[in-house]
Design goal:
Helix content is 66%, strand content 3%. By secondary structure, it is mainly α. The chain has 2 domains: 28-132 and 157-258, Growth Hormone, Chain: A; 259-273 and 306-350 and 369-569, Up-down Bundle (Growth Hormone, Chain: A). The radius of gyration is 26 Å and the shape is globular. Its main location: membrane.
């Protein structure tokens, strides 16, 4: 009799097992094949996502659209925030109507259609078809004084681009919220160790896709063509969609089982607004008069389980909410850090007159420049190196010495590294503005836009990217661990969705802060720069973010300490017990 590998999960009505025949070694082989297919799909999807976001600010700031620097940065923050904020929508649709398999397949299809908008608007005919002709700058009377306010023109093609970016965000968020748990379903029968290893490889797949995208796609977009550069992400999504459909016979698919969102809302209404809840019960005389045991059975969790799950949610939510300012800092590396890098000296990959350069390139009078988005590789490489080092060396050593910090302590450490990253960015911006105010600038052309940059090398941005990468290891990964481990099994999907949603809230709050400070009189209001930020005070913006992060980090330490004390008490085992199976 073979030894059991893991406790089998009960077969759900409507669940479909792999269609392919299997021998004695078949289950493990096909489970690994299904997991590998999910990892490959995730790598391609992340390559497409980073290919879209890496140079989005530069694309909107180019002569194709002539968006101002703060307008392009705001659009990037909105897209990044929505791609996280909409995560619960995709999860809810999968739980209630579609199931995870159909949700991922339809999301990839929407992803493919929406991502085609960017290459379609990268050439004049496509732009005119979707956006119309670019309006000419209106000629008006000269400004009577240098301090008079100037109206900021509406960005060209903004409705179409924002609609396309929001559809892309919906598709990306739905893939993010469903593909992770769908992949875990494929290897669940192989035991807990296989599930844990799957999540490790899943995170690696994300970063591997980012490396491939930033090395190849970002270079093509900045130095060759936005049309070709944005066509590659479309190809990646199309290939991911094909692989997902091709691997369908080996997938385990589960039908939608319903969602506890309605129950959570009812319990919240009952606790927060008892008078309104009594009016709701008064409308349903029959349901109000029946005892819980006399009511007809309903699918899903029992009322007692709903109450326990609601208590867990109330307990976990304050911890996750205090991470929101960290996400405000984290998403700066794909928005304002990029904008700052465009105004630092970006060296050429080849010398000005190298002996091995082609005659065609000499005739153009230019050479390839290092893509500013390549600095994101500092963040990705740190994650790729430190995650296995931490997992195989540092954590086991700390565990043997009984010094291994908890997930909440790691998150506090990650917030500290995020704080130091934005402080370093603010100090660098102060130094950059010092050169600008002394008229020490260099003109550099990035794509088709001329920037007046400080003579400081862009390599000075590496420390802030390295620090934000270290913060990701200590804040983002333990945050996922905390959300997954502290949730009861019936609410893991919902709480993971809330975790991603709150990270999107952080990005949108950062976007709102940029918009507020871009108003006349604000630190980021620089209408005379036409895409440059040399008259802005972005250093004060960075220091403001650092102050917000510092205050909320102290609040997080207090809330986390209180949470750990309550969780270790005897009451936690009775009120917040979880089925860890």
């Amino acid at each position: 009799m073979p030894a059991p590998r893991a406790r089998e999960q009960p077969r759900v009505p409507g669940e479909r097992r792999p269609l392919l025949p299997r021998g004695v070694q078949g289950p493990r082989r096909w489970r690994r094949a299904a997991g590998a297919a999910v990892l490959l799909v995730e790598m391609l999807e992340r390559a497409a996502f980073f290919g879209i976001t890496a140079n989005l600010v530069l694309y909107l700031n180019s002569t194709n659209f002539n968006w101002a620097g703060e307008q392009a940065s705001r659009a990037a923050l909105v897209f990044l925030g929505a791609s996280y904020l909409l995560a619960p929508v995709g999860g809810w649709l999968a739980d209630v109507y579609l199931g995870r398999y159909r949700a991922v397949a339809l999301s990839l299809l929407l992803y493919l259609a929406a991502s085609g908008l960017l290459p379609a608007t990268a050439f004049p005919d496509g732009r005119s078809s979707f956006c119309g002709e670019m309006p000419e700058s209106p000629l008006g009377p000269a400004c009577p004084s240098p301090d008079c306010p100037r109206a900021s023109p509406s960005p060209y093609c903004a409705p179409v681009l924002y609609a396309g970016l929001l559809l892309l965000a919906l598709a990306a968020s739905s893939v993010r919220s469903n593909l992770t748990s769908f992949g875990a379903d494929q290897v669940m029968d192989l035991g807990r160790d296989a599930t844990r290893r799957f999540f490790n490889w899943f995170y690696w797949s994300i970063n591997l896709g980012a490396v491939l995208s930033l090395l190849v796609v970002a270079f093509i977009q900045q130095n060759i063509s936005f049309l070709l550069g944005y066509s590659i992400p479309v190809g990646c999504v199309g290939l991911a969609f094909f692989i997902f459909l091709f691997a369908t016979p080996v997938f385990i698919t589960k039908p939608p089982m319903g969602s506890q969102v309605s129950s959570m809302l009812k319990l919240a209404l009952q606790n927060c607004c008892p008078q309104l809840w009594q009016r709701h019960l008064a409308r349903d005389h029959q349901g109000a008069c029946l005892l819980p045991d006399q009511r007809s059975p309903q699918p899903g969790a029992s009322p007692q389980e709903d109450i326990a799950n609601f208590q867990v949610l109330v307990k976990i939510l304050p911890v996750m909410v205090t991470l929101v300012p960290y996400w405000m800092v984290y998403f700066q590396m794909q928005s304002t850090y990029v904008l700052q890098g465009l105004h630092l000296h970006i060296p050429n990959i080849f010398p000005a007159n190298p002996s091995n350069i082609s005659m065609a390139l000499r005739a153009q009078g230019s050479s390839y420049k290092i893509p500013e988005a390549w600095l994101l590789l500092a963040n990705v490489v740190v994650v790729l190196i430190l995650v296995p080092l931490k997992d195989r060396l540092i954590d086991p050593l700390l565990l043997r010495c009984k010094l291994l910090p908890s997930a909440l302590q790691k998150m506090a450490l990650g917030m500290f590294f995020g704080f130091t990253s934005v402080i370093v960015a603010g100090v660098l911006e102060m130094e950059r503005l010092h050169y600008i105010h002394h008229n020490q600038t260099v003109s550099q052309q990035i794509g088709e836009v001329l920037y007046n940059a400080a003579p400081l090398s862009i390599w000075w941005q590496i420390p802030q990217y390295l620090l934000i990468g270290i913060s990701e290891i200590f804040a983002s990964i333990p945050g996922l661990e905390f959300a997954y481990s502290e949730a009861p099994r019936s609410m893991q999907g919902a709480i993971m969705g809330i975790f991603f949603c709150l990270s999107g809230v952080g990005s949108l709050l950062g976007s709102s802060l940029v918009a507020l400070l871009s108003l006349p009189g604000g630190w980021l209001h620089c209408p005379e720069d036409f895409g440059n930020i040399n008259n802005c005070r972005m250093d004060l913006y960075f220091f403001l973010l650092a102050g917000i992060q510092a205050v909320t980090a102290l609040l997080f330490v207090w809330i986390a300490g209180r949470y750990e004390r309550v969780s270790q008490g005897p009451a936690s085992h009775s009120c917040f017990s979880r089925d860890r199976g």
